[in-house]
């Protein structure tokens, strides 16, 4: 029996139509809502007050409509927020990480929204606050800290912040002796920088008007920023670029990549104005990452058909491709995710048989051993290190029932030291919950991993509501990690499920390849197959499944809503990439050229055009009985522009059949990541959870 829509009747905003036609590859499409794309969108990202008043009025009407339909959940949202906040240790602190004479870390104060960064003497002593995020955020509707990098002599802090949500970061330098800011202020950067060896200047990426990191520059402290030295300029708009340093402070690395090709250029940190040296020229499909190793570089690469990657070495003095030598061979089915070099060890994080593990290799002997855990599904990650000459590796572990733990691991003695376990102040009993790993049969015979979390008292007779989360793009693997927020649903009888669909790397690099470009439909079909499997296994019922995804996962939501609307009880699409074809046809947008390797280039290729047109959610909205839909967006989002969900919502309302509502909530003061501040973000999560509870009839529980 289908649940009746629990929303009171209300008149949604009427979006005027102003048809605009476009013909490509002999196909003409008409976009009746193209006017929602502000002509001055670059200016709006920098100053939201410049938005066309007509567009602003429409977006504000959308907010008024969703507020009316969700008004009856006000008390529930407060309760959810209080629960989620109660699971956070408000004055939490990271475990400080040693770097020479100091150990650096971050913490929160009671009631604080933003982190504070501190250091203390490595041997023990008083804590010194270096940067207070709450203080820097005062008086700002939005505030987000970017990268921080303390100089090797521990005298200065290079830090970045964004106060629009548009991810144009401002770089500043703080004197750690006096606590004052230097006059060196640089606007429109990519969000971080890295110091030269003498600590008297730093490298950074500069964003152009289309929000692309087009230049790497060097700034010498005290100089006019207009005179900053251009180190490298990337002229191909299809490539991302960033700059970073090494822990030995000997190299500056400029990494350039799209989703399938990479290139590195290196500069001696002691010669910041030197000409960057090319390591290996970009070659379509060749990927490699460079990692320090003293007199050598370690190279993680797919060179020579190593689909799941292998590790090679090259002399640091001349690391060109001709000098690469194999160190760890390619092993099909063992995906090497990342590597980290130390003086005596090489550490790699890999995924084998669907689960992560850390492998430590002694450089002198080649002997290897693995750090692994026994739970059915878990998350494992390397936490990094400031120091190169050390035997200690820091890593983190959690599962859907086990709170996050931080360990120091002695690579020589193989002893683990538990440094911290995530505290849940309101209490958490792991034994009250069950986590499972299922394999759902896909349409073509593949099996799709599914991670489940539910309360041990939840009936598994098909009556439980389910929040089914999916992403499935860019090779990103969604970890089965501990999430205190979802307990508010699980404690109310929900089954919380993660569908590890194709497009991620959950089952190796091939799992990613089988969910991109011409194979993108596999991502959507996998998600639908998971929903059907959960029903077949009596975990839930179709009308009780709330599907959720964000960004490219929001595109997944739009696609499955078009393909199988009856398979879901509701759809939550956060910052959804739903206007895929129009966006990939607009080369002026920030991410379009770099995204062509992921989705295809519909400008140059008719095949790519037709492939994208076949699934692009906005282009495939039909006269279907869609379940209730909630879309969320941010006005200054440079990744998924606000007009994508705005147009999608308008077309859904125009074309759909049935009476289920389509809600659109847009944050007028934020971008892709939603509200800034940890508690403001919890309020947004409480809103989406209240929607899920409302549509499944659990709002009063």
From TrEMBL:
Tell me the segments the record calls region Disordered: 1-26
Q: Which source organism does the UniProt entry give? A: Aquamicrobium terrae
Peptidase S9 prolyl oligopeptidase catalytic domain mapped to chain residues: 481-698
Q: What is its EC number?
A: 3.4.21.83
Domain Peptidase S9A N-terminal per the UniProt entry, residue ranges = 12-421
Name of the featured protein: Oligopeptidase B
- Chain segments annotated as coiled-coil in the UniProt record: none
**GO terms for molecular function, please?**
serine-type endopeptidase activity
Which keywords does this chain's UniProt record carry? Hydrolase, Protease, Serine protease
Family to which the UniProt record says this protein belongs: Belongs to the peptidase S9A family.
Which Pfam family name is an example for this entry?
A: Peptidase_S9
């Amino acid at each position: 029996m289908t649940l009746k829509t629990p929303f009171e009747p209300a008149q949604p905003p009427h979006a005027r139509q102003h048809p605009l036609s476009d013909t490509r590859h002999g196909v003409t499409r008409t976009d009746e809502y193209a006017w929602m794309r502000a002509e001055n969108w670059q200016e709006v990202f920098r100053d939201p007050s410049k938005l066309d008043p007509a567009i602003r009025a429409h977006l504000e009407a959308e907010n008024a409509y969703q507020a009316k339909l969700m008004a009856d959940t006000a008390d529930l949202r407060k309760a959810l927020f209080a629960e989620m906040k109660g699971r956070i240790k408000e004055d939490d602190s990271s475990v400080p990480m040693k770097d020479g004479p100091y150990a650096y870390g971050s913490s929160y104060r009671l009631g604080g929204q933003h982190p504070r960064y501190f250091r203390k003497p490595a041997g023990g002593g008083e804590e010194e606050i270096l940067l207070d995020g709450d203080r820097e955020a005062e008086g700002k509707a939005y505030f987000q800290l970017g990268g921080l990098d303390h100089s090797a002599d521990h005298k200065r802090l290079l830090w970045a912040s964004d106060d629009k949500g548009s991810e144009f970061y401002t770089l500043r330098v703080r004197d750690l002796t006096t606590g004052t800011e230097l006059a060196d202020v640089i606007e429109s950067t990519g969000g971080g920088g890295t110091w030269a060896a003498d600590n008297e200047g730093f490298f950074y990426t500069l964003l152009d008007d289309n929000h692309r990191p087009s230049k790497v520059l060097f700034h010498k402290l005290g100089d006019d920023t207009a005179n900053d030295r251009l180190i490298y300029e990337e002229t191909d708009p299809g490539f991302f670029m960033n700059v970073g340093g090494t822990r030995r402070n000997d190299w500056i690395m400029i990494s350039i990549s799209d989703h399938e090709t990479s290139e590195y250029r290196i500069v001696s940190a002691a010669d910041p104005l030197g000409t960057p040296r090319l390591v290996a020229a970009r070659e379509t499909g060749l990927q490699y990452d460079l990692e320090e190793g003293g007199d050598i570089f370690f190279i993680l690469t797919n060179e020579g058909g190593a689909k799941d990657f292998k590790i090679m070495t090259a002399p640091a003095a001349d690391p060109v491709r001709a000098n690469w030598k194999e160190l760890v061979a390619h092993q099909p089915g063992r995906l090497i995710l990342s590597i980290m070099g130390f003086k005596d060890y090489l550490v790699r994080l890999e995924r084998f048989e669907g689960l992560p593990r850390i492998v430590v290799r002694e450089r002198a002997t080649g002997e290897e051993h693995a750090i692994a855990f026994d739970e059915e599904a878990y998350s494992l990650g390397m936490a990094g290190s400031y120091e190169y000459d050390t035997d200690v590796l820091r890593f983190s572990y959690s599962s859907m029932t086990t709170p996050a733990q931080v360990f120091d691991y002695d690579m020589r003695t193989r002893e683990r030291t538990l440094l911290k376990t995530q505290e849940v102040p309101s209490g958490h009993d792991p034994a009250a919950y069950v986590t499972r790993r299922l394999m759902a049969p896909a349409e073509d015979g593949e099996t799709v991993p599914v991670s489940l979390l539910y309360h041990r008292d939840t009936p598994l007779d098909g009556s439980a509501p389910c929040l089914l989360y999916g992403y499935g793009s860019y090779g990103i693997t969604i970890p089965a990690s501990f999430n205190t927020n979802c307990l508010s649903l699980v404690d109310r009888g929900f089954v919380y499920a993660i569908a590890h669909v194709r497009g991620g790397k959950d089952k190796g690099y091939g799992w990613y390849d089988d969910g991109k470009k011409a194979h993108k439909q596999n991502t959507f079909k996998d998600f639908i197959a998971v929903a059907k499997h959960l029903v077949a296994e009596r975990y839930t019922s179709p009308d009780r499944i709330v599907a959720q995804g964000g960004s490219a996962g929001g595109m997944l939501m739009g696609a499955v809503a078009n393909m199988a609307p009856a398979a879901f009880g509701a759809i939550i699409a956060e910052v959804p990439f739903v206007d895929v074809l129009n966006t990939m046809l607009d080369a002026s947008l920030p991410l379009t050229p770099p995204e062509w390797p992921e989705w295809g280039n519909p400008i140059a290729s008719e095949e790519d055009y037709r492939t994208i047109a076949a699934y692009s959610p906005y282009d495939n909205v039909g006269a279907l009985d869609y379940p209730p839909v909630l879309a969320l967006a941010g006005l200054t989002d440079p990744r998924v522009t606000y007009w994508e969900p705005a147009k999608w919502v308008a077309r859904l309302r125009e074309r759909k059949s049935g009476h289920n509502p389509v809600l659109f909530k847009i944050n007028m003061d934020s971008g892709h990541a939603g509200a800034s501040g940890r508690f403001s973000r919890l309020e947004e999560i409480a809103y989406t959870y209240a929607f899920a509870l409302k549509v499944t009839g659990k709002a009063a529980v």
